[in-house]
Structure prediction request, 437 residues.
Amino acid sequence: MIFDVDHETLPREELQAMQLRRLQITVERCYETVRFYREAMDELEIKPHHIKTLSDVKFLPYTKKEQLRDNYPFGMFAVPPDQVARVHASSGTTGKPIVVGYTRRDIANWSHMVARSLSAAGLRPGDRLHNAFGFGLFTGGMGLHYGAEALGLMAIPMSGGQTQKQIMLLADFGATALCCTPSYALNIAEEAEKLGFDMRKLSLRIGLFGAEPWSEEMRYELESRLQIDALDIYGLTEVMGPGVGVECREGKHGLHLWEDHFLIECVDVDTGEPLPYGEQGEIAITTLTKEAFPVLRFRTRDISVLEQAPCKCGRTHVRMRRISGRSDDMLIIRGVNVFPTQVEAILMRTETLSPFYQIEVFREGFLDSMVVNVEASPPLYAKGQEFMDRVSAKVQKDLKDFIGITCRVQIHPTGTVERSMGKAMRVVDHRKKAAQS
Ligand code: DLL
Prediction:
């Protein structure tokens, strides 16, 4: 059963005709109401009436994170404040956040897209969704909450943290689905094991994980530890929040992005040139229905590949492969580009290691060096230092063979790598700290 079958399975020509109409309205709205867009378009000598086909999107200016931040707090809003029903903000760690607004219709559309996403992931009215995404300015908690209600689920707004209580409530409320970041799901699973609690005996059958990059290997880990189907949900504050796209349960290969509400491009990270389907690049998103906070060609910094091949679920919307990483998290180690998810994949293939890790990057002289800190599984730790040295040498070799980077792998006792409650901090870059001091 498809939740919004009329839209989710629209033939591509009809979908594109709808996108064009909505794009024209959005461009007009941006030009007329947001000073930033008017100036950016005037500078490129492009007017709303120049947009005659979908590919004319390439004439529009890109929008970057810094530009949104420069207009803090409400400078990018396209409606007066009395029409703004809610605000959220991005989780920037330094300086001012990016603040986004929603009209009542934006909130209704968002809830609808999350409901669609939950349904595509296999949830049905009657399911109970334990929501361990953070509630507050972060979009995760409330975004999934209202989507769950719109689909007719029992919403359990637990928020993040209090891990032992999460486990108790997961059991007592009989949750059939869990949503949170993949790293927090792993933390919950570990805590449950420590308490001698068998998560596989719960009623859980589906996990919806997102808000941070994760690997296919992490999927297997979560599926086997929690005895669930683990699916990927994507979104970002600047564009809406969670529910921009989701993996369907039938396919489990790439996320359907809801193209009736978003125009999706994949562009060259350096030149900004649009790339054809199948090529890896940065995802850029133009909103097609947002009223309060429309964005034109927002450069997400998320690296992925768009796929055109039809999906067996029958949905016609474009698919995006799981995000390999963010362009600003990409490490360049002695000339080799590497994403933390690639390191994660190798670590998780090594059975004797626990799936908790953090990468440190240093500058030694003129060269960058990388240390991978990972935990031993308790049986490995019990085998002693010599054995662990052999495992670390083997992982170092695998990282060299599969990714091409030379790095040091340090194996630590169980429980020493920081556990995540939300988005895990996978990289500590000492070069940035050195540059700032
Ligand atoms: O993380 C919204 C969200 C909440 C998505 C809950 C999914 C579930 P931000 O805090 O603005 O919003 O962070 C957005 O997180 O640009 C990606 O880099 C990353 N991200 C989000 N979902 C995924 C995913 C939310 N499924 C940023 N896979 C995005 C990989 C993801 N990265």
Notes: Residues 12-33 form the longest helix (22 residues). The mean pLDDT is 95. Residues 90-91, 133, 138-140, 210-213, 232-237, 241-242, 300, 302, 323, 326 surround DLL (CB under 6 Å).
